[in-house]
Write a structure and sequence with these properties.
With 423 residues, this protein is mainly alpha-helical. It has four domains: 37-170, Leucine-rich Repeat Variant (Alpha Horseshoe), CATH 1.25.10.10; 171-243, Leucine-rich Repeat Variant; 255-373, Alpha Horseshoe (Leucine-rich Repeat Variant), CATH 1.25.10; 376-423. The chain is 70% helix and 0% strand. It has helices at residues 2-28, 34-39, 42-46, 69-75, 81-90, 96-101, 110-124, 128-136, 140-146, 151-157, 161-169, 172-179, 185-199, 203-211, 217-221, 227-241, 245-253, 256-266, 273-285, 287-295, 299-308, 312-326, 330-338, 341-350, 356-370, 376-382, 388-400, 406-422. Helix 7 (110-124) runs parallel beside helix 10 and helix 16 (227-241) packs parallel to helix 19. The longest helix is centred in the N-terminal third of the chain and has 27 residues, at 2-28. Pfam families: Arm (PF00514).
Amino acid sequence: MASRAVLHIFEDYQASRTKFVQTVAELAMRSQNMEALQNAGAMALLRPLLLDTVPSIQQVKAVVSNEVLPQLVHSLSEQNVNFLCYFCLLFDGTNVLLLIKKRPFFKKQRYHKKAAAFVTRSVAKHTPELAQKVVDAGALEPLVKCLSDASALSEISKHNNELAQAVVNSGVVTYLTSLVQHPDSKLKRQACSALAQIAKHSADLAEVIVEAEIFPKIFTCLKDLDVIVRKNAATLIREIAKHTLELASLIVNASGHAVLVEFVTENTGNTRLPGIMALGYIGAFSDTLALAIIVNQGIAPLKEALSNEEEDYIKAAASWSLGQIGRHTPDHSKALAQAGVFRILIDIFQNEQSSQDLKTKAQKAFKATVQKCTYLPALELLLHVINFICLIFSYKNFVYILLGNRQFMYKSFFNHTFFIEKR
């Protein structure tokens, strides 16, 4: 009897909650009831019911149907703005599009603009389809006007070229490039990130950012006190540099390669990864650009990363970049040989503890650079490495320079042949 009495109390409570939710939903369908519901504190009473596990209670979703939400937006008191943002996110996220369409929502106080932009970002970041819905709903214009959360623009732009182009067409690039010099570190982080997400898709989009005079402003961010600002700035430079010879040349002509070398030297770990890759992209396009990196002492920090970084993926990036820089001519290869890079690359792809990706990149970098090498001291040292790949490329290069230094070649060749036979 006691347990039945207890259950009866809870059944009454559930029935009362269900009736309350249904009644509020019905009343909210009529615009003339909105003010009375607000004054009675309907939103505050509905708030705890949002997380209710009873299916019938979840009919509170009906309160924000397409017909009701615009009325709620206009009638909300200021303390309920953040609640409505949370409400839209709690279910499927797409209801926020109704908020975006109501432009007065973005004209509220700064704190509420931030909440609205946060919701927009949270919806846009998941899939290209949701991001496209945000764009179609007209979110770009109010986001550009307030820029209280530039990361929403970043989340939209990252998915594909079409969405990034839509962001560019909104005219936001000029505003974002000016923000990279803003004193607020968080704003600089978001501005650099958004620009990087735009630039990564195509050379045309990267050129739009360059035309907005991002250079040399972005180079100052590589020396920022905030580590995330530094990393995001390096990421932006990498995304611009990777597309064409012309864009990479613009960076070098603005002395950006020298700043990147300094950035890679002064930072460690994942922070300097985009800088390492940016140097590789720049050096890959031409022997002139690669030589500019060598002249600015760019080999040393890349070698240091290759030797001392703990993570294999960072070592792999350093291997790739060194290979791109050293593969052009004998002079480029000589710079790597004199720095002792060959020996490190050999140790890496012979090390059983190295990841497969690291071994592959180290071996490719070694092949690409040693094929160009005519620096005899380095080649002679390679002859004493008991590794089939090293021997093949070493002997091949000796053949190339046979006529130029016949005596040295014969002496090294026969000495090493005798050494192998004895083994």
